[in-house]
């Protein structure tokens, strides 16, 4: 473990940024292209995780634990959000028998 | 003595509250309030020393953080407009007695509320207070016109409201700008007078103010709200609009535009005069063939106001004094005209000239009073209209002779459309409709007699009124000229 | 601190009271709790306490807390009989509102990004739920899901922004960030700029500024009116307080950088909010668009950062809050009688219920920004604020929009006074009367004598 | 006595007020009495003033009443000026006015609006007196417009007839056109001389060089004013229409007094006009043209009042001719004599009309000589007077003008004389058609024809006497007189043209008298001997006759050139410019916003995917900005 | 081998996350997401953020993903019956995504920060260290997140429980 981490110290910070940005964007693309609310939600989780990773990288870079603490909060939020979000989806499904977001267009204009 | 002014300004507000809860007695309560105001104004006028100073000054901090004070006072110019307001409001209230308005308490309360707004406008020495009054006068009249108006009232009044408030918001922009320029960071008019703005600044402040005033007056081409609104509004609303409200614009120009941005006026005054004069001819021409008498009078009002506006921008004592007295005269005359048309409308349910005619044979009293008002409007010597028009024209003449030649067409055109209307409505043979016309009586008679008396008295002996404002007007013009010569 | 504790404890007490079926006691308990917190607000005035370096209860925070608490109280007063007919779980609703209020108090007082995040999320999650509490109502479902999906999405950007700022400055603490900015003014990391922009996006979403406003009309319309009133007043106020704390203080050194995007946002927000509101048939939806436009005006305080910016937001938010509460209160009354939110239902209201009509008129005048109402003072200070930097074109544009605003606000007045409507008599319950009277009194007092609030912060 | 001059206008004003207020309550006799009495009192005072002035060495008295308007440097007092010119005008106005008032008692006796009529007449007298008494242009202007008002009221007296009402309006509007000229002249005077007081303006003006541009402008404007009031080309068409009013009105306002106000004004401002020879020429030409035109039209008219009206136009042209050639006193002389004989003629015509039950068409008259003897004889005197046969009044005044014209320009004189022949012709044509030949009306009407009551005939007789002898106030030196009038007016009208030498004058007189006699003979042959009667309206006429009969189509031309284009402009401005363009822009803004609203709200598609896409687009653009700006 | 582990794992992360959004069956998406999260856990370990790695493993993969799967099964969505959006929208979405990543990275000028990541304090991500931080300066947010969780709890119950009507 010790060894492994020592080995990895050569990765430039901007590669982490790239990675996070790419994964974040993949999440965004997911949100943009999918119609299933649950999958969209999963894409959002992907975005959050990208942020988490970047935060951790910055935390290490800055040698500051608070970044990792923040990740912890984000996870707590994610948990809360998942609970609420999924119950909303379930509730909607009960009424519409669907999780397709395109069904949700009664409120417009 | 300051208490007198406080009382004067807020009495109508108190009256409005009382009236709002007076139920059936609302119209009497309103009249009493208005008459008390009139008496107060008379007392005030008697105590007024006709020099250039501002008297009865009130100055209380109001919104200190923003440099806003309740700063009001009366000088000769204000006094004329205050006089106009408090003179016409009772007349207008009395004139509304022929109608049985629904929710009369609200109706009369709104009138009185508006009176406070108007008085604020006419006495404010703090730009913010002025603006507040400006808007406070607008809201009630909007409701008066929109609730009690004709069938097209909603759309028309919306236009009126949005149009006027558009102007006033740009004025607010100008006021804020002046406030920011003012090192004292307040809205005091004297401080504004002392500002040294460069020509570009003055130019755009001129426009931000002028558009607001031009819409209110209205000056061509900002006038199109006016004929519709006048036509659709209930008679009382029309009288308030044409008789008093319109003077807010004129007063604004005199009090706030000329002394604050003299260079702006110098640069753009010609444009303003040209617009005003175009308005005179244009509106007169349009009035020629109007089929609805109310609309005709509306256009005539544009023409008359154009003359006043041109006279003010001519920037000399005669023009300005003419504007002062013409404000009063126009207020009286136009109220009279609209009242007569209202009497006719009340009875005949129409103001279409073609439907009327021959009323003079069945209602001689009305015919005579109407005639006097018409001739007051066409500025026959011996009536109030003449004094103002004469002074205005002489003022414009000193500005430019060609301006007066064109503006003077109002003398001819006014006679043409007014007499056309008079002939169409009153003369000729009676028709099936007008044969049953009942002559005026009761409150109608009283109102018309008062109006005619005012027309003649002012026409024959205008000196006391002219005297009231003379010193103030002269000081104002000197002030402007000084500013023009001192800088640049 | 004790404000949050009081509110949170109240929420828990309410939750328990709900368990014990003490329905009658719920509202009083909540109100007493809020009153208690209000007392704390007043008592800690001018103390500027800092808690754990995380929360700063300065006058800014206290003033906004006070405003949001009062707003919440008024809205809670409207809950009488509101939920009862379609749910048993009133305690939970109240509890959620109070939790959201907790989040709001955090949002207005945070001194650390983590607090902002937590506060924002407490509030948002509560609102996701509250928007959907009409479980069988399709609109409510839709509102809830839309709000949730888009909210979660925008949170991602907000977090990314926080991350980048953290990456650049090495801290979540606002003071430290500000110190970093001031210290490295010439060499601020590019990460930071992007972070600022992303945070701008995230917060714009929360306050419903264009082009991140799309959730607003749908969610406002679909949510139960009471919740909408909460969202559009208290929540919006909180959003702006959060916005202000971050941008007006911490990011102030970068003002030149984020001014441009902000201006674009302001222009778009004003335009879309006002112009779209014009053609609405549904009163609630119109209010939603109007709230977007008000967001535009509120952002004026950020266009020109002056010592008064914060207070201006407070004034504007107060004016907007009370006027909106009136509007929603009357809307709820009308809707309970007629079943939908369309303008036609307001036809002839002046006859059916003159009091409500008058009060709503004043509210509309205030929203439109007519003098002698609080709304005018709000707009005025905003205009004044940006005029100090001579943003003449912005103000001119705002004026044009305000004109459009007059048009749609007056539509309500027109409907109430000038149109003939059904003869259904509309009664005003006592609590509604209290709310309406209080709000209208505040609206007028602020309009006539705004000094009471002008120098609060 | 002179200090009491304010009573002169005030008393008629009182009469107006009493009659006006009591028009429905007082009896007709009382109204008639009051109405006439007040004028008589004024007349009496005027006579007193006249003699007092005659006895006074100082020929000019200003009586200050009160300050009327003052604004800045402009001070306009209400003050009166009593001098030879105004004192003589007072006499004419109150004297002739009184007679016409008396006449009206009889003439209007059966009219419903008797009280109203008298109050209007009194008001007219008041304004007319104000006009002549004013010591400055503004007071004059008050009277000037005031008489216009009364003219409007009295022409439209029978307003139920809408063409009468239109005639009234036309009169007022045309007067107003002139008034604008007057007003501008006043402005010019004020700015040039710093005052509008006669006593300050004229001495200053006398210092100026002749032909000074401002003076020319002032006099031109004044002349435009005079044209309106005194019915000169191009503003004369209102006067014939003004015959719509009751006949005493035509006599008083549209013959004797008001229409001569223009001459009075120019005579009053003679100092100014002397400095503007160009304008004087213009006046002469316009006057002459008007005289000819009026006479030409009068030849073929069939309405007895129209003949007199065009004759008035023509005579007014004469007066202007006189003014134009510098014979101010001659013109003024003609004003006086014209007041006598034209008032007489109108009143006679009124008497005829009264007798014929408001029949005015001469084609339905004839042979009235026996039934209306007094009317006939008085009218005969009037006709001779206007034709200019010595020693009747018209001869002297007309001759004086012609003599000066001859001095000024021979062609002008020739045309003037020709016009005089025409005058004699159409006047005698009228006389013959009315009083000679056979009665051509209905039998029913014939039975009711009777001489008018005494209240009408006495004024006729008085006026006939005046017409006959009135000329003796201005007998020229060539005929052994010493032209009292000229001497009397000399303090006011300082400069006046030299009369031609006696021999020339005799020759001129001879030519005109002979010519007139021939014309009369011509008329006699045609209308008495041959009993020719003008053909019916629709009958065919020769081209010239047609032109004359249709008044040279001037009304129609005005209608086509001025009124119709103006109305078309009005409609255009209203319907196109105002509604479509100016209002269209305003409404278009509103419409555009609404359309924008319709469009923009489609953005809110309800589709979450779309919303998010838009958000992403926004985010991308903001990030792009960031990329570009750092 | 050095840093290549990171790149391999990173590639895997990207690959699986792409699979998440492109697999038609939601259940497959969830499973790919779990795998993606696992790669994240590896990243955390590589960054020596052991506590986070554990939490990520437990919370995300253990709790959250199971919840997702549970809901999917509950709602019977384990078929790829999602009506897919039109290709146009997909293409547009992808293009938008690409633009986003380009602008995002571009605006970061990330290439400028090429200094390698150095773990200055190996204990940074250890529980002890984080605990101190969490119960020290971050005490308040930590406590307050309880409200968040409570809210979520109440909300979840509220929304999914059947009303007695």
Name the features.
heteropentamer, C: 457 residues, mainly alpha, 20 helices, globular, E: 165 residues, Four Helix Bundle (Hemerythrin (Met), subunit A), 6 helices, 72% helix, transmembrane helix (chain C), NADH dehydrogenase (quinone) (non-electrogenic) activity (chain C)
Give a nutshell description of this structure.
Chain A has helices spanning 2-7, 13-33, 37-62, 66-96.
Characterise the protein shown here.
- The complex is a heteropentamer of chains A (109), B (488), C (457), D (630) and E (165).
- Chain A has 109 residues and is mostly helical.
- Helix content of chain A is 77%, strand content 0%.
- Chain A has one domain (12-98): Helix Hairpins, CATH 1.10.287.3510.
- In chain A, helix 2 (13-33) runs antiparallel to helix 3 (37-62) and helix 3 packs antiparallel against helix 4.
- The mean pLDDT of chain A is 86.
- In chain B, 69% of the residues are buried.
- Chain B has 2 domains: 1-260, no CATH class; 264-488, no CATH class.
- Chain B has 488 residues and is mainly α.
- In chain B, helix 4 (104-123) packs parallel to helix 10 and helix 15 packs antiparallel against helix 18.
- Chain B is built from 20 helices and 2 strands.
- In chain E, 44% of the residues are buried.
- The termini of chain E are far apart.
- Chain E has 165 residues and is mainly alpha-helical.
- Chain E is globular.
- Chain C binds chain D through residues 146, 149-150, 153-154, 157, 190, 193-194, 197-198, 200-201, 205, 211-212, 214-215, 217-218, 257, 260-261, 271-272, 275-280, 404, 407, and chain D through 590, 593-594, 596-598, 600-601, 603-604, 606, 608, 610-612, 614-615, 617-619, 622-623, 625-626, 629-630.
- Chain D: Residues 136-423 form the NADH:quinone oxidoreductase/Mrp antiporter transmembrane domain.
- Chain D: This is NADH dehydrogenase subunit L.
Secondary-structure content class of chain E: mainly alpha
Radius of gyration of chain B over all CA atoms, rounded: 21 Å
* Beta-strand content bin of chain B: under 5%
User: What average pLDDT do the residues of chain B reach?
Assistant: 90
The largest β sheet of chain E comes out as: none
Tell me the number of strands of chain B. Answer: 2
Tally of separate helices of chain E: 6
Give the SSE order of chain B as H and E letters: HHEEHHHHHHHHHHHHHHHHHH
Domain count of chain B: 2
User: What share of the residues of chain B lie within helices?
Assistant: over 70%
Helix content of chain E: over 70%
User: Uncertain spans of chain E, ≥5 residues at pLDDT below 50?
Assistant: none
Percent of sequence in beta strands of chain E: under 5%
Low-confidence blocks of residues of chain B: none
Assigned CATH architecture of the domain at 1-78 in chain E: Up-down Bundle
Shape of chain B: globular
Write down the Rg of chain E: 20 Å
Identify the CATH homologous superfamily of the domain at 1-78 in chain E. NADH-ubiquinone/plastoquinone oxidoreductase chain 6, subunit NuoJ
Which whole number gives the mean pLDDT of chain E?
A: 83
Pfam families (chain C): Proton_antipo_M (PF00361)
GO cellular component, one term (chain C): endomembrane system
EC number (chain C): 7.1.1.-
Domain NADH:quinone oxidoreductase/Mrp antiporter transmembrane (chain C): 112-401
């Amino acid at each position: 473990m010790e060894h492994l981490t020592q080995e990895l110290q050569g990765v430039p910070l901007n590669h982490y940024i790239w990675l996070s940005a790419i994964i974040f964007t993949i999440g965004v693309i997911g949100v943009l292209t999918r119609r299933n609310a649950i999958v969209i939600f999963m894409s959002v989780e992907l975005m959050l995780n990208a942020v988490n990773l970047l935060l951790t990288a910055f935390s290490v870079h800055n040698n500051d634990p608070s970044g990792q603490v923040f990740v912890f909060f984000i996870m707590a939020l994610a948990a809360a959000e998942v609970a609420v979000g999924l119950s909303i989806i379930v509730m909607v499904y009960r009424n519409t028998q669907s999780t397709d977001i395109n069904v949700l267009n009664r409120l417009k204009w | 003595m300051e208490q007198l002014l406080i009382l004067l300004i807020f009495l109508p507000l108190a009256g409005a509250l009382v009236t709002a809860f007076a139920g059936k007695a609302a119209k009497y309560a309103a009249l009493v309030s208005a008459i008390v105001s009139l008496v107060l104004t008379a007392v005030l006028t008697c105590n007024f020393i006709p020099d250039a100073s501002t008297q009865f000054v009130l100055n209380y901090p109001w919104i200190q953080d923003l440099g806003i004070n309740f700063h009001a006072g009366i000088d000769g110019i204000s006094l004329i407009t205050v006089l106009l307001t408090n003179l016409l409001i009772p007349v207008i209230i009395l004139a509304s007695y022929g109608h049985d308005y629904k929710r009369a308490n609200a109706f009369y309360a709104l009138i009185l509320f508006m009176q406070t707004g108007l008085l604020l406008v006419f006495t404010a020495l703090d730009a913010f207070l002025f603006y507040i009054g400006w808007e406070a006068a607008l809201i009630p009249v909007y409701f008066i016109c929109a609730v009690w108006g004709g069938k097209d009232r909603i759309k028309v009044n919306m236009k009126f409201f949005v149009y006027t408030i558009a102007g006033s918001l740009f004025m607010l922009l100008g006021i804020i700008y002046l406030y920011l320029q003012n090192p004292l960071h307040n809205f005091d008019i004297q401080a504004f007078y002392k500002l040294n703005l460069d020509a570009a600044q003055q130019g755009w402040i001129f426009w931000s103010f002028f558009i607001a005033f031009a819409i209110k007056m209205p000056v061509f081409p900002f006038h199109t709200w006016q004929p519709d609104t006048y036509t659709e509004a209930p008679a009382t609303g029309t009288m308030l609009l044409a008789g008093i409200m319109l003077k807010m614009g004129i007063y604004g120009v005199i009090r706030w535009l000329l002394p604050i941005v003299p260079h702006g006026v110098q640069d753009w005054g010609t444009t303003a005069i040209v617009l005003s004069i175009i308005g005179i001819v244009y509106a007169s021409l349009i009035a020629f063939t109007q089929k609805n008498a109310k609309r005709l009078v509306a256009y005539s009002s544009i023409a008359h106001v154009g003359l006043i506006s041109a006279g003010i921008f001519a920037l000399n004592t005669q023009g300005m004094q003419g504007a002062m007295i013409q404000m009063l005269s126009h207020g009286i005359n136009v109220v009279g005209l609209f009242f007569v048309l209202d009497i006719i409308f009340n009875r005949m349910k129409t103001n279409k000239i073609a439907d009327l005619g021959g009323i003079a044979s069945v209602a001689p009293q009305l015919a005579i009073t109407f005639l006097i008002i018409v001739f007051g409007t066409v500025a026959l010597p011996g009536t109030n209209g003449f004094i103002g028009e004469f002074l205005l024209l002489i003022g414009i003449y000193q500005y430019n002779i060609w301006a007066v030649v064109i503006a003077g067409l109002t003398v001819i055109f006014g006679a043409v459309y007014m007499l056309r209307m008079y002939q169409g409505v009153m003369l000729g043979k009676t028709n099936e409709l007008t044969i049953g016309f009942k002559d005026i009586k009761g409150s109608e008679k009283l109102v018309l007699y008062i109006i005619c008396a005012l027309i003649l008295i002012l026409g024959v002996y205008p000196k006391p009124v002219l005297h009231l404002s003379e010193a103030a007007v002269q000081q104002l013009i000197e002030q402007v000229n000084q500013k023009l010569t001192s800088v640049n | 601190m004790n404000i949050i504790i009081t509110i949170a404890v109240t929420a828990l007490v309410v939750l328990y009271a709900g368990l014990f079926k003490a329905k009658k006691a719920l509202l009083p308990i909540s109100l007493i709790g809020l009153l208690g917190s209000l007392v704390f607000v007043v008592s800690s005035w001018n103390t500027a306490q800092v808690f754990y370096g995380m929360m700063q209860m300065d006058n800014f925070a206290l003033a906004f807390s006070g405003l949001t608490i009062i707003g919440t109280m008024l809205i809670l007063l409207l809950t009488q009989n509101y939920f009862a007919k379609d749910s048993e779980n009133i305690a939970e609703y109240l509890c959620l509102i109070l939790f959201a209020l907790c989040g709001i108090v955090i949002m207005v007082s945070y001194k650390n990004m983590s607090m902002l995040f937590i506060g924002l999320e407490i509030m948002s999650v509560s609102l996701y739920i509250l928007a959907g509490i009409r479980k069988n109502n399709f609109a409510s479902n839709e509102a809830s899901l839309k709000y949730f999906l888009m909210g979660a999405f925008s949170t991602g950007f907000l977090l990314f922004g926080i991350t980048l700022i953290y990456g650049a400055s090495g801290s979540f603490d606002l003071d430290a960030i500000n110190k970093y900015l001031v210290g490295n003014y010439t060499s601020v990391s590019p990460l930071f700029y992007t972070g600022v922009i992303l945070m701008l996006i995230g917060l714009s979403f929360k306050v419903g500024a264009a082009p991140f406003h799309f959730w607003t009309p749908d969610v406002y319309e679909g949510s139960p009116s009471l919740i909408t009133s909460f969202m559009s007043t208290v929540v919006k106020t909180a959003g702006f307080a959060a916005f202000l704390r971050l941008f007006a203080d911490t990011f102030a050194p970068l003002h030149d950088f984020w001014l441009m995007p902000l201006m674009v946002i302001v222009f778009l927000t004003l335009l879309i909010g006002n112009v779209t509101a014009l053609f609405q048939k549904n009163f609630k939806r119109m209010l939603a668009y109007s709230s977007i436009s008000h967001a535009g005006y509120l952002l004026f305080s950020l266009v020109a950062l002056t010592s008064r910016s914060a207070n201006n937001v407070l004034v504007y938010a107060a004016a907007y809050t009370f006027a909106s509460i009136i509007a929603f209160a009357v809307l709820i009354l009308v809707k309970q009688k007629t079943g939908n939110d369309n303008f036609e239902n307001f036809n002839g209201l002046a006859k059916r219920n003159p009091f409500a009509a008058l009060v709503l008129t004043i509210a509309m005048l205030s929203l439109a920004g007519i003098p002698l109402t609080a709304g005018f003072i709000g707009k005025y200070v905003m205009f004044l604020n940006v005029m100090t930097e001579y943003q003449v074109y912005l103000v001119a544009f705002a004026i044009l929009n305000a004109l459009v605003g007059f048009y749609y606000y007056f539509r309500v007045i027109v409907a109430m006074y000038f149109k003939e409507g059904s003869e259904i008599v509309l009664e005003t319950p006592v609590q509604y009367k209290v709310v309406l009277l209080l709000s209208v009194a505040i609206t007028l007092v602020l309009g006539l004598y705004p000094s009471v609030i002008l120098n609060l912060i | 006595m002179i200090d009491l001059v304010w009573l002169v206008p005030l008393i008629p004003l009182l009469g107006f007020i009493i009659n006006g207020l009591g028009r429905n309550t007082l009896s007709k006799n009382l109204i008639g009495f009051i109405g006439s009495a007040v004028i008589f009192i004024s007349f009496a005072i005027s006579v007193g003033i006249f003699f007092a002035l005659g006895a006074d060495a100082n020929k000019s008295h200003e009586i200050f009443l009160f300050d009327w308007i003052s604004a800045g440097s402009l001070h306009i007092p209400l003050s009166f000026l009593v001098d030879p010119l105004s004192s003589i005008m007072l006499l004419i106005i109150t004297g002739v006015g009184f007679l016409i008032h008396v006449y009206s008692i009889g003439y209007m006796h059966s009219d419903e609006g008797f009280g109203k009529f008298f109050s209007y007449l009194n008001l007219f007298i008041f304004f007319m007196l104000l006009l002549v008494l004013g010591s400055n242009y503004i007071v004059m202007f008050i009277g000037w417009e005031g008489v216009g008002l009364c003219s409007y009221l009295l022409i439209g007296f029978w307003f139920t007839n809408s063409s009468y009402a239109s005639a009234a309006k036309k009169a007022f509007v045309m007067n107003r056109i002139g008034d604008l000229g007057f007003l501008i002249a006043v402005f010019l005077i004020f700015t040039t001389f710093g005052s509008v007081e006669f006593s300050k303006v004229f001495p200053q003006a006398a210092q100026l060089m002749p032909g000074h541009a401002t003076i020319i402008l002032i006099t031109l404007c004044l002349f435009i004013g005079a044209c309106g009031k005194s019915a000169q080309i191009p503003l004369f068409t209102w006067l014939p229409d003004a015959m719509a009013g009751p006949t005493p009105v035509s006599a008083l306002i549209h013959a004797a007094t008001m229409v001569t106000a223009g001459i009075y004004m120019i005579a009053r401002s003679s100092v100014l006009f002397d400095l503007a020879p160009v304008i004087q020429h213009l006046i002469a030409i316009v006057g002459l043209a008007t005289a000819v035109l009026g006479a030409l039209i009068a030849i073929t008219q069939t309405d007895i009042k129209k003949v007199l009206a065009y004759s008035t136009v023509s005579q007014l042209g004469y007066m202007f001719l006189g003014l134009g050639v510098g014979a101010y006193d001659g013109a003024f002389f003609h004003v006086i004599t014209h007041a006598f004989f034209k008032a007489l003629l109108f009143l006679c015509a009124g008497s005829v009309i009264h007798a014929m039950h408001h029949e005015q068409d001469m084609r339905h008259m004839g042979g009235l000589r026996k039934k209306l003897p007094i009317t006939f004889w008085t009218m005969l005197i009037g006709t001779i007077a206007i034709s200019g046969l010595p020693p009747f009044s018209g001869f002297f005044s007309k001759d004086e003008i012609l003599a000066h014209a001859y001095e000024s320009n021979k062609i002008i004189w020739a045309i003037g004389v020709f016009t005089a022949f025409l005058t004699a012709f159409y006047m005698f044509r009228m006389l013959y058609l009315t009083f000679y030949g056979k009665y051509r009306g209905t039998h029913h009407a014939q039975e009711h024809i009777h001489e008018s009551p005494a209240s009408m005939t006495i004024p006729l007789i008085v006026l006939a006497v005046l017409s006959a002898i009135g000329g003796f106030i201005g007998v020229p030196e060539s005929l052994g007189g010493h032209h009292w009038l000229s001497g009397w007016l000399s303090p006011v009208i300082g400069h006046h043209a030299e009369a031609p030498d006696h021999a020339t004058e005799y020759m001129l007189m001879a030519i005109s008298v002979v010519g007139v006699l021939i014309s009369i003979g011509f008329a006699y042959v045609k209308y008495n001997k041959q009993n020719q009667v003008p053909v019916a309206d629709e009958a065919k006429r020769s081209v010239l006759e047609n032109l004359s009969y249709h008044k040279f189509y001037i009304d129609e031309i005005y209608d086509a050139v001025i009124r119709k284009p103006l109305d078309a402009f009005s409609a255009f401005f209203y319907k196109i410019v105002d509604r479509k363009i100016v209002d269209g822009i305003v409404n278009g803004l509103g419409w555009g916003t609404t359309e924008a609203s319709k469009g923009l709200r489609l953005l809110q598609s309800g589709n979450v995917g779309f919303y998010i896409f838009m958000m992403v687009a926004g985010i991308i653009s903001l990030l792009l900005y960031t990329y570009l700006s750092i | 081998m050095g840093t290549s582990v990171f790149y391999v794992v990173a590639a895997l992360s990207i690959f699986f996350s792409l699979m998440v959004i492109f697999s038609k069956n939601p259940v497959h998406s969830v499973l790919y997401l779990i795998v993606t999260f696992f790669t994240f856990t590896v990243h955390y370990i590589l960054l020596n953020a052991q506590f986070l790695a554990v939490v990520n493993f437990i919370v995300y993969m253990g709790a959250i993903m199971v919840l997702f799967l549970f809901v999917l099964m509950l709602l019977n969505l384990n078929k790829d019956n999602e009506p897919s959006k039109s290709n146009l929208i997909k293409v547009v979405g992808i293009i938008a995504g690409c633009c986003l990543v380009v602008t995002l990275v571009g605006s970061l000028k990330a290439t400028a920060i090429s200094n390698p990541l150095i773990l200055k304090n190996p204990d940074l991500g250890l529980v002890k260290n984080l605990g101190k931080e969490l119960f020290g300066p971050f005490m308040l947010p930590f406590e307050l997140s309880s409200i968040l969780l409570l809210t979520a709890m109440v909300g979840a119950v509220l929304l999914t429980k059947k009303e007695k009507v």
